[in-house]
Automatic annotation (TrEMBL):
One GO CC term, this protein: cytoplasm
UniProt record similarity statement: Belongs to the glycogen phosphorylase family.
GO molecular function, one term: pyridoxal phosphate binding
Protein's job: Phosphorylase is an important allosteric enzyme in carbohydrate metabolism. Enzymes from different sources differ in their regulatory mechanisms and in their natural substrates. However, all known phosphorylases share catalytic and structural properties. Allosteric enzyme that catalyzes the rate-limiting step in glycogen catabolism, the phosphorolytic cleavage of glycogen to produce glucose-1-phosphate, and plays a central role in maintaining cellular and organismal glucose homeostasis.
Native source organism of the sequence: Chroococcidiopsis cubana SAG 39.79
Family annotation (CDD domains): GT35_Glycogen_Phosphorylase (cd04300)
UniProt protein name: Alpha-1,4 glucan phosphorylase
Essential cofactor(s): pyridoxal 5'-phosphate
Superkingdom of this protein's organism: Bacteria
Keyword list, A-Z: Carbohydrate metabolism, Glycogen metabolism, Glycosyltransferase, Pyridoxal phosphate, Transferase
């Protein structure tokens, strides 16, 4: 895909180093060498997985020089560094991405071909590190790619879950969860750094003592201690030498003398302790946007945050920087409230472990943190019961009380004694039991608070965080999300990449605004023809995947209408399925109906405990079963649920879409990022005025976007005036028929009870207003079908969508974070060979 650029020409001479050279002959030799010396195999005995590992190590060797150099330069220069704290990093497979960013995809492909191997097959062997649930974790991964590509010194800090997000199977139409054993065959991308292990305390009590100056200090006597072991993964930027670090922490039992003494003669007791400690980082909580108040989850959050902050302090001490400069050395970003305990932990470290006084410690803390909010959904706002919190983190609770007391004093000073306001702002929720409000802690402890789309940031200021906005408006800002074009165009859609590059060169890969330049071809018949051809080939590819994984045969010439994302009521997959049923009924009522043939593709996981979401999956599969086998329907409509949606499985999907479903209830989807991946790959969007849909529509032009549905204001007004979903059902025959069929067992072999909970919910409460949005959605889909028949118009719209998506590169988002929040500059990295000019 790209030319080699950094060094190395394959001259056929033996001048290249086996660990760094990127000529085809060198790559082949290095690959076979790794097969022998790392996997201990010769080709006759090697499995596909052995070959994958040998290739991964060959690529890793080429990363290492950049990684080591990057670290050396950051250390030498004492560079200001971004620390991105996130409970989730949904990285996706590393191999393909590293080949792209190294600029050696083509050479490696050729090397493998010459060895009679298929690079695609080897890429497919990589177990994906699924250390995230969905959008939030994937955003962190896109941001690491952009940070490295923009040469910004960065450490990503998180948890090395032994089991990531579960694998999804579909059995009899239901979701079944299977453990994700991603580390089973080893992970060639990480290096353990046990020499930088840290201890993390839990539970116990605190006591006062006096320091050397005779001032009161607090000592924490914990109930247990757990070791954190860092595992580092290099994150290479696109065609730069910067390789930053993703540092994930694994919990282990400490083997201290005390511990052994305590367990003397009790071997089983000692092993039991070990098991309990290591449980901490066993598994990712699979809930997306609902918090669950579980002790282990709070332990995970505190564990990785404490490891990260202690690691930063270690780096400062090693670089001989005074701790008063903490906020100058590090800009720490909180990815939602999952790491918000960092505010109290940094205070504790500075006060208790480094003997600082409150005022300077608090100033440093506030200047250090930025907080990104990712949701307005009340069920996602984390709050921990005081009982749990105090038993696990007694010292942090004391610190939070002190922060709160001082903060509320300031509030009283500014607004007078307004008890209502004080109650709303307090870090402690006392409405119904007592809780620590993590978003409040994050707001008070940060110098900047941002939402992730224009609408979301506005709503934050007007609703969820209104009181905080009134108190410190200058802290609030918006940074609209973005996604990396390296993974989501170059790697996922090589054909489109080549077409674009052949027209305008490859600068757009680093500067996505440049892709605008294909606009001049939007009506060019030759270009349109190629555009269409590529889309068709990408659809054929997905058709093969669907046949292979589901047994359903779909027509690549039908309109591919795709909704892939976590299953959630607010995302309204069930509104989409109501459209499927409506189309089905229209064909059944008029068997000769000349409708635009469609393939409806769904994919996504439901949280294992989210009953209605799982029922929606069952409904999709039940409708699919009836529709797909009905001879009256034929190729005019197919419904498919692709199991086990993850980063790897999603990469072929975006390039194959004609229509992107972004149909959340207005005001509920903070941003959305799948919407960007689709539009960049030339899909048109059908969507509500929600999250980033609004900004995508503004960018691509209203005439190139299918808009429908209630606005956020409409939603609020309708709720206030009394929303009666059943009225819509009664008055709309198409809607009534669809709901009645679901209720009557039409899709469930006559079983009337199966979908009753869902039907009742829609008719009685309909919290996400599907009934109100149904007809506008159906009408808009009719528009889509009409437009699709005008091939030239559709192609023009598709090209313009890709051309106008420049704003939605994560590079743009990261530049904004750097300027507005982090105040951090690029630090270019040169390789020794480049410096001496002999490379
Ligand atoms: F609830 N998001 C997510 F805000 O994927 F924490 N998981 C989550 O737990 C949360 C948010 C949380 C998503 C938003 O739903 C999506 O709209 C947004 O695009 C994405 O985060 C990245 O900002």
């Amino acid at each position: 895909i790209q030319e080699p650029q950094l060094q190395g020409q394959d001259t056929g001479m033996q001048c290249e180093d086996d660990r760094t050279g990127i000529g085809v002959e060198t790559l082949k030799r290095a690959f076979l060498d790794n097969l022998f010396y790392v996997q201990g195999k010769f080709p006759a005995l090697a499995t596909k997985h052995d070959y994958y590992m040998a290739l991964a190590y060959t690529v890793r060797d080429r990363l290492l020089q950049r990684w080591v150099n990057t670290a050396a330069i950051y250390t030498q220069q004492g560079s200001r560094t971004v620390a991105y704290l996130s409970a989730e990093f949904l990285m996706g497979p590393h191999l393909g991405n590293n080949l792209i960013n190294l600029g050696i995809y083509n050479q490696v492909q050729q090397a493998m071909t010459e060895l009679k191997l298929d690079l695609k097959e080897l890429l497919a062997k990589e177990e994906e590190p699924g250390l995230g649930n969905g959008g939030l974790g994937r955003l962190a991964a896109c941001y690491l790619d952009s940070l490295a590509s923009l040469e910004i010194p960065t450490l990503g800090y998180g948890i090395r879950y032994e089991f990531g997000i579960f694998d999804q199977l579909i059995r009899n139409g239901w979701q079944v969860e299977k453990t994700d054993k991603w580390l089973r065959y080893g992970n060639p991308w990480e290096i353990a750094r046990p020499e930088w292990a840290v201890s993390v305390k839990f539970g116990g009590r605190t006591e006062a003592h006096k320091n050397a100056q005779g001032r009161y200090r607090v000592r924490w006597i914990p109930h247990k201690v757990v070791l954190g072991i860092p595992y580092d993964t290099p994150i290479l930027g696109y065609k730069v030498n910067t390789a930053n670090t993703l540092r994930l922490w694994k919990a282990e039992a400490p083997e201290s003398f005390d511990f052994e003494a305590f367990n003397r003669g009790n071997y089983y007791g000692a092993v039991d302790q070990k098991v309990t400690s290591e449980n901490l980082t066993k598994v990712l909580y699979p809930n997306d946007e609902t918090y669950e108040g579980k002790q282990l989850r709070l332990e995970q959050q505190y564990f990785f945050v404490s490891c990260a902050l202690q690691d930063m302090l270690r780096i400062m001490l090693r670089q001989k920087l005074p701790l008063e400069q903490f906020h100058e050395k590090f800009a720490v970003q909180l990815n939602d409230t999952h790491p918000a305990i960092a505010v109290a932990e940094l205070m504790r470290l500075l006060l208790d472990e480094h003997d600082m006084d409150w005022e300077p410690a608090w100033e440093i803390t506030q200047k250090t943190f930025g907080y990104t909010n990712h949701t307005l959904l009340p069920e996602a706002l984390e709050k921990w019961s005081l009982k749990l919190f105090s038993s696990l983190l007694p010292r942090h609770l004391e610190i939070i009380y002190e922060i709160n007391w001082r903060f509320l004093e300031q509030v009283r000073h500014k607004f007078g004694t307004d008890e209502g306001r004080i109650g709303r702002l307090s870090l402690i929720d006392e409405n119904d039991g007592k809780f620590v409000r993590m978003a409040h802690l994050a707001c008070v402890g940060s110098h900047k608070i941002n939402g992730v789309a224009a609408l979301h940031s506005e709503l934050l200021q007007k609703t969820t965080l209104l009181d905080f906005y009134e108190f410190f408006p200058e802290k609030f800002t918006n940074i609209t999300n973005g996604v990396t074009p390296r993974r989501w165009i170059v790697l996922s859609n090589p054909k489109l990449t080549n077409l674009i590059t052949s027209c305008i060169g490859d600068n757009w890969i680093k500067h996505l605004e440049d892709v605008q330049r294909i606009e001049t071809y939007a009506e060019d018949p030759g270009f349109q023809q190629e555009w269409q051809q590529i889309k068709r080939e990408n659809k054929v590819n997905v058709a093969e995947i669907l046949l292979d994984r589901t047994g359903v045969k779909v027509d690549p010439d039908s309109l591919f209408d795709i909704q892939v994302k976590r299953i959630h009521q607010y995302k309204r997959q069930h509104l989409n399925i109501l459209h499927a049923i409506t189309l089905y009924n229209q064909i059944k009522q008029n068997p000769n109906l000349d409708i635009t043939p469609r393939t409806l593709i769904f994919a996504g996981k439901a949280a294992p405990g989210y009953y209605i979401a799982k029922l929606i999956i069952k409904l999709i599969n039940s409708v699919a079963e009836v529709v797909n086998k009905d001879p009256d329907i034929g190729d005019r409509l197919k419904v498919v649920f692709l199991p086990d949606y993850n980063v790897k499985n999603s990469q072929p999907i975006y390039p194959a879409a004609d229509l992107s479903e972004q149909i959340s209830t207005a005001g509920k989807e903070a941003s959305g990022t799948g919407n960007m991946k689709f539009a960049m790959n030339g899909a048109l969007t059908i969507g509500t005025l929600d999250g980033t849909n609004i900004e995508i529509r503004n960018a691509v032009g209203a005439e190139n976007f299918f808009l429908f549905g209630l606005t956020t204001e409409d939603v609020g007004a309708l709720r206030l005036t009394g929303y009666r979903p059943r009225e819509y059902y009664k008055e709309n025959p198409q809607l009534k028929q669809a709901i009645d069929q679901i209720a009557s067992g039409y899709f469930s072999h006559g079983d009337r009870s199966l979908f009753k909970p869902l039907v009742d919910l829609l008719l009685d409460k309909d919290p996400f207003m599907l009934m109100a949005d149904y007809q506008p959605y159906i009408d808009c889909q009719q528009q889509v079908s009409q437009t699709y028949r005008d091939r030239d118009r559709w192609l023009q719209m598709s090209i313009l969508n890709t051309a106008r998506m420049g704003k939605f590169s994560s590079d743009r988002a990261i530049r904004e974070y750097c300027q507005q929040i982090w105040k951090v500059q690029p630090v270019p990295v040169q390789l020794a060979a480049e410096k001496t000019g002999d490379g």
